Structures are given as structure tokens and as C-alpha cells.
């Protein structure tokens, strides 16, 4: 007899998936007899495999693209407060629904406005707890993937891009920082294909050779292996910061329009920098938020040196095992 299906929807991006790792593991513990299907972006499948809680990835770029053939016993909305995501899951006719409360749609659960004040990891764990499923928001570490190469020449990863200009620290400051961090290890510049011109500008200004520009040249699996073996990761509020947290690698994250209280790193070898007193708060603006522009190169360099010195640069976990 086939196992019943629990389908969890999180049709978002890299950082979004990593913030629900604790929730997915809680679902695995609570429903050991179910086959857990995660509806998320197909490109994230290599990371989903590291979580240890997902049996199948259903490539789903957005809620309205959700399509599953077969019966769904339990539908879990880890995507949002609805109504689009709720309705997409309702179309599967699940026996049980778990998600933020929307009584008008027939979804029991905690009110969305209560969850929205919480850190993203805590938010989904609190939602599950309301439904009787205990979850630990600190249960977020991933084992290092195959291809991670620990050793004395750990790279320093600089990631200057973000989805919107409001979250992008100026390229010239990233370049100045890259020059200063060179004693810590070989500096590489990462990003997606669309961020390659930005990465090339940073590298050129920092006198880095073209082979140090990895933007647009790494798959998700290769980026994960790179971060899992890094000496340090420096970025804005974007997905690679969550990768550093997942692998327990030292990181410094620069926050602008949205503060670390919602998306910041966990306790550990991570630091969040921002200047909340002058925050504009528009995450979709084209230009950097004042809270981001107020962060100087000296401040970031000092924080980088502090976090690497205090972390001891612990070796990554062995592939296939869970970090403690």
C-alpha cells in the first residue's frame, strides 16, 4: 500500500527554502509514515535533498503553477498567508489542511497578523505548533554537500547582488572590502547570471582575476559546496546569507530596508549590520536604503575580522551527516 502524501508548498527562492528547514523537519518527525512532497522551485532540489525531511521535490515556480497527480492526505502551506497559496492547495482536495488561519477560506490556524511579527524561521514553527506539531527554529543546520573541499585555502565569498537595489551595498565598497580581506583567503565574487556584470565591476576594482568571478558560473549545488567550505561569507540580505547560516560558516550580513529581526542569521558565527534609526523601509526601491548606506567599509572589515577570529573556522560537517 502506498504511503499517504503530505504536500508542503514553499514556491519561493533559496533563502525562503532555508528558513523553513526547521518546519520541514518537524513535519517529518510528526508524520513519519507519510511521503513528504515539497512544492518549490526545481532548481532547489539539491538543497532539499540535504534537509533529510523531503522525499520528493515537485517543481513549482509559483502557487498558481501547483499541479500534483494523486491524492493528498495533508496539505501544508509554508508559502504565505493566502489567499492564493491556500486556494492552490485547496484545489488538491486534501483531507487535512495546515497553515496560517483563514477562516473565510476554511483554513483553521493562527491569525496571519500574529505570525507576521515573528522571525521567518520562528513564524513557520509557531504556525505548526498551533496545529499540534512541535518545531525547533534552531534546527536549521545542513550537512556539507559532496564537493565541499575543507582545507587551509578556504575562500572568502563576496556576494554583492540582491533582488532589488534597496538591498545592494555599493559595488565600490564591496571592492574595497575585498582588497582588505585578501589575507583571510582567496577572495571570490558570486552571484546569479544576471549579476555577473556587477560581480565583474567589483572584481576589477579589487584587482581580482577573472577566474575569481564565479557569478553565473555555479549551480545551486556548486554554490552550496563553495559556501560550506568558506572561511567567510559577506553579503546583503539575500539567499547566500542563509546558506552560510545553514552550513555554520562565518558570515557578515548587511541589512537595509528590512531589519535582521525578520530575516537575520541565527546565533553562531554570524553578524548582522544595519543602521535602523535611518531606515526608509522600502524593500523594492531601486537605490540602496539609507540604513545600508550608513554602513562603512571600516565597520564591515572590523566585523569580518571579529567573526572569523571568534569562530575558530570550524570544519564543515561530513556529507550525509547532520551538523550539531
Structure description:
The chain is α/β, with parallel strands linked by helices. Helices cover 33% and strands 13% of the residues. The strands form two sheets. A five-stranded parallel sheet has the order 3-2-1-4-5, sandwiched between helices. A five-stranded parallel sheet has the order 7-6-8-9-10, sandwiched between helices. It is globular and about 60 Å long.
Oligomer category = single chain
Distance between the termini: 36 Å
* Share of helix, binned: 25-40%
Strand tally is 10
What is the 3D form? Answer: globular
User: What's the order of the H and E elements?
Assistant: EHHEHEEHEHHEHEHHEHEHEHH
Strand order in space, largest sheet: 3-2-1-4-5
Low-confidence stretches: 314-324
From the helix content, strand content and strand pairing, which structural class follows? alpha/beta
What value does the Rg take, in angstroms?
A: 20 Å
The major sheet is characterized as: 5 strands, parallel
How many separate helices? 13
As a percent range, the share of strand residues is 5-15%
Q: What does the average pLDDT come to?
A: 93
Q: TL;DR?
A:
33% of the residues lie in helices and 13% in strands. By secondary structure, it is α/β, with parallel strands linked by helices.
Amino acid at each position: 500500500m502506498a504511503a499517504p502524501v503530505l504536500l508542503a508548498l514553499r514556491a519561493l527562492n533559496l533563502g525562503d527554502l532555508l528558513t523553513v528547514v526547521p518546519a520541514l523537519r518537524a513535519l517529518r518527525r510528526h508524520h513519519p509514515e507519510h511521503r513528504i512532497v515539497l512544492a518549490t522551485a526545481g532548481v532547489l532540489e539539491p538543497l532539499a535533498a540535504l534537509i533529510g525531511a523531503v522525499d520528493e521535490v515537485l517543481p513549482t515556480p509559483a502557487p498558481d503553477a501547483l499541479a500534483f497527480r494523486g491524492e493528498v492526505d495533508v496539505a501544508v502551506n509554508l508559502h504565505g498567508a493566502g489567499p492564493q497559496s491556500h486556494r492552490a492547495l485547496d484545489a488538491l482536495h486534501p483531507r487535512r489542511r495546515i497553515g496560517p488561519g483563514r477562516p473565510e477560506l476554511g483554513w483553521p490556524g493562527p491569525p496571519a497578523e500574529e505570525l507576521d511579527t515573528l522571525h521567518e524561521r520562528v513564524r513557520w514553527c509557531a504556525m505548526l505548533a498551533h496545529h499540534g506539531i512541535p518545531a525547533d527554529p534552531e534546527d536549521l543546520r545542513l550537512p556539507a554537500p559532496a564537493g565541499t573541499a575543507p582545507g587551509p585555502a578556504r575562500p572568502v565569498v563576496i556576494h554583492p547582488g540582491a533582488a532589488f537595489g534597496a538591498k545592494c551595498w555599493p559595488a565600490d565598497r564591496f571592492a574595497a572590502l575585498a582588497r582588505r580581506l585578501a589575507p583571510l583567503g582567496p577572495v571570490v565574487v558570486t552571484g546569479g547570471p544576471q549579476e555577473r556584470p556587477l560581480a565583474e565591476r567589483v572584481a576589477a576594482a579589487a584587482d581580482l582575476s577573472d577566474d575569481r568571478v564565479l557569478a553565473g558560473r555555479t549551480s545551486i549545488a556548486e554554490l552550496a559546496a563553495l559556501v560550506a567550505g568558506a572561511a567567510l561569507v559577506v553579503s546583503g540580505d539575500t539567499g547566500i546569507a542563509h546558506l552560510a547560516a545553514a552550513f555554520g560558516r562565518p558570515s557578515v550580513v548587511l541589512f537595509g530596508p528590512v531589519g535582521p529581526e525578520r530575516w537575520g542569521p541565527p546565533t553562531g558565527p554570524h553578524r548582522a549590520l544595519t543602521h535602523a534609526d535611518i531606515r526608509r523601509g522600502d524593500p523594492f526601491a531601486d537605490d540602496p536604503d539609507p540604513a545600508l548606506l550608513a554602513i562603512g567599509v571600516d565597520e564591515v572589515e572590523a566585523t569580518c575580522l571579529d567573526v572569523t577570529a571568534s569562530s575558530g573556522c570550524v570544519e564543515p560537517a561530513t556529507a550525509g551527516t547532520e551538523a550539531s
